[in-house]
Amino acid sequence: PKKITPEIARMAGYIVGDGHITKNNQATRFFNNEKQLLEDFKKAGEKTFNINGRVLKYGNKTPYVEFNSKIIGKFFNEALGVPNGNKSSIVRIPKPILFGGEQLRIEFLKGLFDSEASISLKKGELELGSNSTKLVEDIGLCLQALGIAYTVGLKKAQTRIFVSGKELQNL
Q: What is the CB neighbour count within 10 angstroms for residue 8?
């Protein structure tokens, strides 16, 4: 792709949240139990890269979409900077998305929050935890730019970001 589209930003959010790029960039995967999210990831990838993805599930494990393509893996890893291999403590919002305009930030957050955040209706709160403090800082920058208030805390050795009350409606 010559430019970063909203679909690419959303896919990056999915990958950062519950995805994986193999160490050799050969395969890009997104794991989730929600068919709608898997289908969105698959369609966005097929539209953007013109490469077929497939939905896989082994036994009782979480289903996932896989693009068995070095082109896609290299794009997300090298062009956007999404780490391959074990990324949990070093991942960040890709700079071209973080500084690429409001629509790209919104789409990235959609993918990330849909795949990784939890919502407590009882507390009226969205919560996302990460082993990467830098990722939480980047999310805070995006929320701040959108005028959405948030808090940050530690819980179970993870840095967590919380959006609550009327601020949830702004998401």
A: 27
d(CA 17, CA 12): 8
State the DSSP H helix or E strand holding residue 152, giving kind and residue range, or none if neither: strand 151-155
Helix, strand, or coil (residue 128): strand
Give the integer Cα–Cα distance in Å for 38 and 44.
10
Assess contact for 31 and 62: CB atoms under 8 A.
Answer: yes
Kind and range of the H or E element at 139?
Answer: helix 133-145
Q: Which string of DSSP letters, residue by residue, matches 37-79?
A: HHHHHHHHHHHHH----EEE--TTSPPEEEE--HHHHHIIIII
Chunked mean pLDDT (size 10), the chain, 171 residues:
95 98 97 97 98 96 97 97 94 96 96 94 90 96 94 89 80 62
pLDDT at 171: 62
Q: Measuring CA to CA, which residue among 2, 14, 1 is closest to residue 94?
A: 14
* Cα(112)–Cα(138) distance, integer angstroms: 12
Give the closest residue to 141 by CA, choosing from 167, 107, 109: 109
